[in-house]
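[recover] target loaded
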């Protein structure tokens, strides 16, 4: 089963004042399931994980409603305020939906880099663990030391780093990113998504992402790397089929089943129900 573990849907009418701006014409329009389904069919992708793009629960409700109507959406990574006083109750409520698989705070957009390294998150993380939910880390390289501290404090929490932590490929800044990712890869509760790298390459040729993708595979191993398209953001840098083909070429054939499906299925517990809270 081939799974795209990172894609988005949105309606521009819901995003007044939000990203993407109008000048990003390739993605400044509605993107809905009917836009992606023929692309998935052509790529022979069987299902997806739909990931949040706004810091409100209305976006999460929108995604879960789409998941109810479109069976190819196997799981949803939503948003809730993890530092709110009522976070554990909100998590329990949202977890009643069987396709809600995790949460993603938009760390890259939070002004305070240290937001993630804060014990006030502990009640929410405990609730996530109670309900079998995972944590998607939308981080930049500058957040990696703080993410390491957070991950060490919550060794039972399944964490996946989105987009390889968005390395500064266009600027060629490899060494510091590599050393910080190596420290994170040493923790068994952390996975990494092979996604989003083409967008980070900027004007460089697609081949520029290869050393970063190979490093992710080397550090995390084929059992902890999860492929995603980051569609429709991918449209800023390339197309779905080309990105998939490039990744299939980079990942050794013997690991395709894991990286392009099996790892997503096990990490997000796709098809499984949530455990009851303790």
């Amino acid at each position: 089963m081939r799974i795209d573990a990172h894609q988005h849907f949105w309606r521009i009418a819901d995003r007044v004042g939000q990203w993407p701006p109008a000048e990003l014409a390739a993605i400044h329009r509605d993107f809905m399931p009917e836009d992606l389904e023929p692309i998935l069919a052509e790529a022979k992708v069987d299902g997806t994980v739909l990931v949040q793009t706004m810091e409100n629960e209305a976006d999460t409700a929108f995604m879960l409603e789409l998941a109810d109507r479109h069976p190819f959406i196997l799981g949803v990574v939503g948003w809730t305020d993890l530092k709110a006083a009522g976070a554990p109750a909100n998590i329990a409520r949202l977890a009643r939906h069987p396709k809600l698989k995790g949460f993603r705070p938009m760390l890259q957009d939070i002004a305070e880099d240290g937001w993630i390294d804060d014990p006030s998150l502990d009640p929410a993380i405990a609730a996530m663990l109670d309900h079998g939910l995972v944590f998607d880390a939308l981080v930049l390289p500058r957040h990696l030391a703080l993410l390491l501290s957070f991950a060490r404090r919550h060794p039972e929490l399944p964490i996946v780093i989105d987009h390889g932590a968005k390395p500064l490929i266009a600027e060629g800044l490899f060494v510091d990113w590599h050393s910080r990712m190596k420290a994170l890869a040493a923790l068994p509760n952390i996975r990494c998504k092979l996604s989003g790298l083409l967008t980070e390459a900027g004007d460089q040729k697609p081949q520029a992402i290869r050393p970063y993708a190979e490093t992710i595979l080397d550090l995390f191993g084929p059992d902890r790397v999860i492929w995603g398209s980051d569609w429709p953001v991918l449209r800023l840098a390339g197309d779905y089929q080309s990105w998939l083909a490039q990744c299939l070429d980079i990942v050794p054939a013997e690991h395709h089943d894991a990286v392009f499906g099996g790892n997503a299925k096990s990490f997000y517990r796709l098809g499984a129900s949530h455990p009851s809270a303790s």
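[recover] notes: The chain has one domain: 3-267.
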